[in-house]
Amino acid sequence: MKRVKRLAPLALSALLLAGCGGGKSAEPTTNEFPQPATTTMSADPGKDAIQAFVAAAHAGRADAMWDLLSTASKRRLGPTIARFRTRGAKRLAKNLGSFGRYNVIVSERITPEFGVVAVDGSRVVEGRRLREVYAAALRLEGEKWKVELGGPVHVRAVGPDPGAHEGVVAQLAAAVSGKGGTGSAVVYVDGLTENPKVYGTASNSTLVVNFEPALDPGRHTVVVFGNVGRDASATGWWFTARRR
Fold first, then answer.
1. Residue 174: closest CA among 223, 138, 129
2. Within 10 A of 29 (CB to CB), how many other CB atoms are there?
3. Most buried of the four, 123, 131, 153, 192, by CB within 10 Å?
4. CB of 166 within 8 A of CB of 241?
5. Pick the residue with more confidence: 215 or 180?
């Protein structure tokens, strides 16, 4: 598949640079992760990383999750594996480990250092099975992509809200905040890249995607990646449009 991605430029240390107007790309995203120089190469190392991480969380294997985390994430969630076992590992096992069947809906390299992956599936919460989208940034360390969690860059939904059932959806928005350095952001809707408009201040930007025509009725997924300087994060959610 052809690689299609539009970066929304951010300058969170100064003024925000305006992005292009909204509009859905005609093609789905694909990954372009660099491959290690071996005779057996994975077709999608980003997908491999998140699948291994979900499996480790499901099995409650703190050591396996620890090995899949980036060095920066280990410092934040540890900083030792002993501390990680008592704090971060249990939280990840409870949340990400409760995923049942899921599909990888985004797996793409964004910058030389960062990529993004996202899964769409369901997990059990207090005895109920709920649909959920989980997204994470990946950081390249050597020849391996590691899961990046708990960083200083914050990415959140503005609207429609996660799990919302809306009437007509002709616009969606997300926020990216961080300090120091320039950065970029990518918005995916139903696995396709979008052209957001970017608004904001020196410490907080809002990405807005307009749809003309409005989105089709049904369930839609959103994944937003943002990086500022040497840090990155991602978030994902879903909502339903009732009519066009």
1. 223
2. 22
3. 153
4. yes
5. 215
Q: Which domains does the chain have, with CATH numbers?
A: 8-241 (2.60.40.1220)
Cα separation, 3 vs 25, in Å, equals 11
> What order of strands is seen across the sheet that includes strand 171-177?
154-159, 171-177, 204-210, 197-200
Query: Tens of pLDDT along 111-164?
Result: 999 999 999 999 878 888 889 999 999 999 999 999 999 999 999 999 999 999
Q: Which residues contact 111 (CB under 8 A, 6 or more apart)?
A: 184, 227
- Across the chain, mean pLDDT equals 85
Q: Is 127 exposed, middle or buried (0-12, 13-18, 19+ CB in 10 A)?
A: exposed
Rg, the chain, Cα only:
18
CA distance 94 to 72: 22
What residues pair up with 97 in beta bridges, in sequence order? none
Query: What average pLDDT does the segment 172-197 reach?
Result: 92
Q: Other C-beta atoms within 10 Å of 156: how many?
A: 14
The residue whose two tokens read 């250092």 is 113
Taken as a whole, the chain contains a residue count of: 244
CA-to-CA dists, residue 239 to 99, 131, 154, 214, 218, angstroms: 18, 10, 20, 14, 8
Task: Report CA-CA distances (Å) from 187 to 16, 85, 113, 176.
Answer: 17, 33, 18, 11
